[in-house]
Design brief:
Layout: H1 2-21, H2 23-29, H3 32-83, H4 89-103, H5 109-131, E1 149-157, E2 164-172, E3 177-181, H6 188-195, E4 203-208, E5 211-212, H7 218-224, E6 225-228, H8 239-243, H9 252-261, H10 265-270, H11 288-301, E7 306-310, H12 318-331, E8 336-341
Parallel strand pairs: 3-8, 6-7, 7-8
Antiparallel strand pairs: 1-2, 1-4, 4-5
Helix pairs in contact: 1-3, 1-5, 3-4, 3-5, 9-11, 11-12
Domain ABC transporter: 149-347
Protein name: ABC transporter-like protein
GO molecular function: ABC-type transporter activity; ATP binding; ATP hydrolysis activity; ATPase-coupled lipid transmembrane transporter activity
Length: 347
Amino acid sequence: RYDAVRARAGGLGARLTTNLQGLQTIRAFGAARETATLTAESRGYVEANRAAIRVSSAFIPIIRMAILSGFLATFLIGGWLTLNGEMQVGAYGLLVFLTQRLLWPMTGLAEIADLYERAMASTRRILRLLDEPRGEPHGTHEAKVSGRFEIDGVGFRYATSPGGVTDINLAIKAGETVALVGPTGSGKSTLIKLLGLFIRPQRGRISLDGVPLADWSGECLRTSMAWVPQEVTLFSGSIADNIAYGRPEVSREEVEAAARMAEADNFIRDLPEGYESQIGEYGQKLSGGQRQRIALARALLIDPAILILDEATSAVDNETEAAIQRSLARMKGKRTVILVAHRLSTV
């Protein structure tokens, strides 16, 4: 029952977060349906909590009956022994006092048991999350990555959707810029996940520099690959902190050099506090194009041998798109770049 309460609380919290983030959309399309959904979530939480309260409330009368039984036994047995002269009156009074002092704190045991069960329900949810596979490779091979991919007959299908890839054959040379262009659902993002080893191919083989991708160590791959998604995730803090997210030990000069490569240095310096400007939660104080360039700078700071841009220019303005393309042009031949796009004109 307590697990159900925590599950309902998590669902309700997620719904509230989504509603707050999408408040403008809800207003634009009318909130009646979303309000009904939120009401249903709230009622589900109330019902789950009511069931848990019924269980916890049963502890209180049971514990109080145990306390009363202890007092009654003390009075009867102690009184009988005192009347028969087998116990002194002072000892009897002391026994009653000690019984009261020892048994009365047990009245809080029901509340403690309820708090314990609620805490354990939350702990079990956390432990289940920690037990989820990380998706990291299990290999141990480590070497300097040049960025040469060989994809032979690779296939992958999702169990819950028709998307995926079938019999993909592709060779990417080190330092080459490759564009994966196609409509939605053509498998571009799936192939990117396969190359990053976020998922494993169900058929075929992927090699990096002649070594099976699964044989590389996770640490080596993560420091050799950088990924810039379409939906950028920035963290509350300064611009400098976000650029240095993957390498917090770097100097300010290295942070600024990465920003210049991503064509972000100019707009950063135009801000009142420059690189120390606070970007707010999820980077809400910046435009979409500015967030995209900071994400590119963050990727470039780790100096990856392989740079993957997943629809990175699909939702930005022409100025940002041109800036990103200039950055990519300067990388030509220096690192392997894999671009994902809907249209060839955006590459």
